[in-house]
């Protein structure tokens, strides 16, 4: 499963990319607005940080003509940009046109299997079911993800499933076990993937034992050579 970060914060993106496991970024109008920078400039900078990763940038129009106009412009900003479109009737109309033009579209705010089926038929590149937001209203987001995976597998749809609104590591693991192509998550959830108390406890014990052993073993690692600042 590919890992995407759901953020527009450049510091979080740089930190995530430094681990070598981030494959892309998803943004939305709320996330971009928090950064208080020109939209186009900000998206291009994200693309330059992630380099070969795919970056979703969302339209804000809600009528078909407006969505088409904005989507076509956003698609020119960078080769790695994926245009994000809401799953509303006008959005699906726009998708059917954009997909024929070769513009890759991430259909967002998907909350039902019928919606996912419609966007796959219309040619979506990504479909983004929001798992956590369904959980918030006492519905099981993972049930929706399973339904989408079953439908897409049955008909061999090429649309990639991007599990969104992942709120904790169990969401990430469950989505991976179901075969979701991508999981997108806030940076704080990504950080939680590293953590386990036994890892921390085990490392603490190893280091304590090593300090005791140094009394007889001495230092076995050569100190790093000083860097020449003139070079």
Question: What brief labels describe this structure?
Answer:
231 residues, alpha/beta, TIM Barrel, eight-stranded parallel β-barrel
Q: Can you describe what's shown?
A:
This protein is of the alpha/beta class and 231 residues long. The protein has a single domain (2-192), classed as Aldolase class I (TIM Barrel). 52% of the residues lie in helices and 16% in strands. It contains eleven helices and eight strands. The protein has helices at 10-18, 29-35, 39-50, 64-74, 89-100, 113-122, 131-136, 141-155, 169-178, 187-192, 197-217; strands at residues 2-6, 24-26, 54-58, 81-86, 105-110, 126-129, 160-163, 182-185. The protein has an eight-stranded parallel beta barrel with strand order 1-2-3-4-5-6-7-8, surrounded by six helices. Strand 7 (160-163), helix 9 (169-178) and strand 8 (182-185) form a beta-alpha-beta unit. The chain is globular. 34% of the residues are buried. The model has no long low-confidence stretch (mean pLDDT 94).
Uncertain regions spanning at least 5 consecutive residues: none
SSE sequence, one letter per element: EHEHHEHEHEHEHHEHEHH
CATH C-level class is Alpha Beta
Mean pLDDT: 94
CATH fold topology: TIM Barrel
Broad structural category? alpha/beta
Number of domains: 1
Discrete helix count = 11
CATH architecture: Alpha-Beta Barrel
Give the N-to-C terminal Cα separation.
42 Å
Shape: globular
In this structure, how is the largest beta sheet organized? 8 strands, parallel, barrel
Helical residue percent? Answer: 40-55%
Task: Provide a short characterization of the protein structure.
This protein is α/β, with parallel strands linked by helices. It has eleven helices and eight strands.
